[in-house]
Write a structure and sequence with these properties.
The complex is a heterodimer. Chain A is α/β, with parallel strands linked by helices. Chain A has 2 domains: 4-168, HUPs (Rossmann fold); 186-308, Rossmann fold (3-Layer(aba) Sandwich), CATH 3.40.50.1220. In chain A, 24% of the residues lie in helices and 30% in strands. Chain A has 7 helices and 18 strands. The longest helix of chain A is centred in the C-terminal third of the chain and has 16 residues, at 294-309. Chain A is globular, with a radius of gyration of 21 Å. By secondary structure, chain B is an alpha/beta fold. Chain B has 6 helices and 16 strands. Chain B has helices spanning 36-52, 67-76, 94-108, 127-135, 187-195, 233-242, and strands spanning 2-7, 10-12, 19-21, 24-26, 32-34, 54-61, 80-84, 112-116, 138-143, 145-148, 151-158, 161-168, 171-175, 199-201, 210-216, 225-228. In chain B, helix 2 packs across helix 5 (187-195) and helix 3 (94-108) crosses helix 4. Chain B starts with a strand and ends in a 5-residue tail after the last helix. The chains are: A alpha/beta, B alpha/beta. Chains A and B meet through helix 2, helix 3, strand 7, strand 9 and strand 10 of A and helix 3, helix 4, strand 9, strand 11 and strand 12 of B. Strand 13 (172-179) of chain A pairs antiparallel with strand 12 (161-168) of chain B, so a sheet runs across the interface. The complex binds flavin-adenine dinucleotide (FAD) and adenosine monophosphate. Flavin-adenine dinucleotide is lined by residues 196-198, 222-225, 237-242, 254-256, 258, 260-261, 264, 274-277, 280, 293-295 of chain A.
């Protein structure tokens, strides 16, 4: 149980910076850390050669990593990796691959880890209403939430060893019906600004987009907004039947704070709420609450941001 | 003919307050129900049967007392209901649970398995892909639309957006909310469900290597600051920079 293998998170073909957080999570579990970089071009692995506390970097090169098939990913990774406890970032695709890899190796999987103490791993359960700590007594495959662990420093110069691998792809993409918007997805953003029914119309989401553009945020929505307005896609929904997010900053505008919405965003590091109703439940969870209509508050918010960051 | 299996799990009512007593979650006063995404999985399984013929079997791995969700599945229209258990089991880790599911699905001769994208208690999303790997099958997760033929063509989010993906059978498909509105049980369904027999089976489970040590409540957040009026928004921006350090 001493080897720890960190799978670099690949986002649009490059290494996601949260990979450095996975290394410190691996260090908290103890043992020797190897980083495995899934890629189609081994130069992608250069992004992690500086990470401190890593004894080995393996670039696993395979066509399967250009696609989404989790069987292809898991089989290619498995063929090129040593035994040990494996850490992934807890994104939708990586959680799927982690589950397959664990099953392939006859191991158990523990998802969404937010705290590590040796062999004790803690994850939220019941949509964050409680935490569960488990003890792992054998090699395990683990996924770790982003924005929870510190990033390791960079200053080393590891050498990359390249392994060619092939994978067992089982599914085939026929057609991409809805292109991902150029905007950041809520599940990968450090800052999210979300609108609810209180926005009044889908056109008013442009005010949220303007703020998002100023601070590099993603735009999210409540279910009421998604259900009421066709222009607001389900992919933007945060909550129990939407996405679970864990950003540094979550700004809720015209959202009441129903328990199902809280389920998706309550673990955000800082929460700002803008709502005209001082009794809205969202204020009980906000670090900074602004009791005002968004029509009054957002222009001021936007101006202050622009002068601070502009 | 398709032998369609849908996995259902009993979880606490998602509106319930959760309390921790003596380091363990206390569910003694909490109403239990079917995990919400499993309702979508049942709907898709029934549509699969309507398109290709065959049978739908709802399957749960759970202790005595979890029959209610199988009866709910029956009332929606599944053909068979099966509970798998062994009284020597308590908490099964993912390796043990998936091993039990694999053995049971093989003995039922399953050709397509539907499940929820994640259970409302674990939130994990491990079961669908893990089970598929153990069976050597294809899988698709977070599925929001499906058409049925020799393969199932699903709509699902991929990195490039939302894609139509062809998933050859046999396969395990994990269902998100999507376009599926779970059908309501009608009176006839509810009457049938009352009379229906739950088939009880067992399987062999390896020892769990992941063991629950304790439960705890999330750390309470310190009370936040509240400001009146839109003009306070500039003060909040300053605090986000100076106090919270997030800008
Ligand atoms: C099984 C189930 C699953 C669910 N899953 C989700 C989920 O994933 N995500 C989710 O969000 N919800 C979910 N819901 C729905 C949830 O219960 C709420 O209905 C929903 O979150 C409400 O959205 P809202 O806050 O935008 O709307 P509302 O509750 O209508 O709140 C609108 C708010 O806007 C404020 N407001 C109005 N005008 C203005 C203005 N001009 N300026 C500022 N504030 C204004 C109002 O004071 C109010 O607080 C789920 C429900 C169920 C039963
Ligand atoms: N004990 C169980 N019995 C039957 N199905 C289960 C069980 N646990 C999980 N599942 C299925 O797997 C899905 C995902 O669960 P999880 O991997 O725990 O998030 C659930 O929505 C169910 O469809």
């Amino acid at each position: 149980m001493t080897n720890k293998i960190v799978i670099a998170e690949l986002t649009k073909g490059t290494v996601n910076a949260s990979t450095a957080e996975l290394v410190s999570a691996a260090q908290a579990m103890g043992g020797d850390v190897t980083i495995v970089v899934p890629c189609t071009d081994a130069s992608v692995a250069d992004a992690v050669t500086g990470y401190d506390g890593v004894s080995k970097v393996i670039a696993v090169k395979s066509d399967v990593f250009a696609g989404n098939d989790s069987s292809g990913w898991a089989s290619a990774l498995d063929s090129a990796m040593p035994a040990g406890t494996v850490l992934f970032l807890a994104t939708a695709r990586s959680k799927d691959v982690a589950s397959r890899l664990a099953a392939r190796r006859g191991l158990s999987v523990v998802q969404d880890v937010v705290s590590v103490d040796g062999n004790n791993l803690t994850s939220p359960i019941y949509s964050g209403k409680a935490n569960q700590t488990v003890t792992v007594n054998a090699d395990t495959v683990v996924s770790v939430r982003a924005n929870v662990f510190p990033s390791v420093e960079s200053g080393s110069s590891n050498v990359v060893s390249v392994v060619d691998a092939s994978g067992d792809v089982k599914t085939a993409v026929q057609d991409v019906m809805q292109r991902a918007s150029a905007r950041l997805d809520v599940s990968e953003a450090n800052i999210i600004i979300s609108g609810g029914r209180g926005m009044g119309s889908p056109a008013n989401f442009s005010h949220l987009e303007a703020v998002a553009d100023t601070i590099g945020a993603a735009v999210g929505a409540s279910r009421a907004a998604v259900d009421t307005w066709d222009e607001i896609p389900h992919s933007m929904q945060v909550g129990q039947t939407g996405k679970t997010v864990n950003p540094n900053l979550y700004i809720a505008v015209g959202i009441s704070g129903a328990i199902q919405h809280l389920a998706g965003m309550r673990s955000s590091k800082y929460i700002v709420a803008i709502n005209k109703d001082a009794d809205a439940p969202i204020f009980q969870h906000a670090d900074y609450g602004i009791v005002a209509t968004w029509e009054e508050a957002l222009p001021v918010f936007q101006n202050a941001l622009s002068s601070l960051l502009g | 003919m398709s032998t369609i299996i849908v996995l259902v799990k009993q979880v606490p009512d998602t509106n319930a307050k959760i309390a921790v007593q003596g380091g363990r979650v206390d569910l003694s006063t909490v109403k239990m129900e079917m995990s919400p995404y499993d309702g979508f999985a049942i709907e898709v399984a029934l549509r699969h049967k309507e398109a290709t013929g065959g049978t739908v079997t709802a399957l749960t791995v759970g202790a005595a007392g979890t029959e209610k969700i199988l009866k709910d599945a029956k009332a929606m229209g599944v053909d068979n209901i099966v509970r798998v258990w062994d009284d020597s089991w308590s908490e099964l880790d993912s390796n043990a649970l998936q091993t039990v599911l694999k053995e049971t699905i093989q003995s039922l001769g399953g050709t397509a398995v539907y499940c929820g994208k994640s259970a409302a208690d674990t939130g994990a999303g491990s079961t669908g892909p893990g089970l598929a790997e153990r069976l050597g099958w294809a899988n698709a997760s977070n599925v929001i639309g499906a058409e049925f033929g020799d393969a199932v063509t699903v709509s699902m989010p991929v990195e490039a957006g939302v894609a139509k993906v062809s998933v050859p059978l046999p396969a395990v498909i994990s269902c998100d909310k999507g376009d599926f509105k779970p059908r309501k049980a009608n009176v006839k369904g509810i009457m049938m469900a009352k009379k229906a027999q739950v088939e009880l089976t067992t399987a062999s489970a390896p020892e769990s290597t992941v063991v629950v040590a304790s439960h705890s409540m999330p750390a309470a957040k310190p009370a936040g600051k509240t400001f009146e009026g839109g003009s306070s928004a500039s003060e909040v921006v300053q605090l986000l920079r100076d106090e919270a350090n997030v800008l």
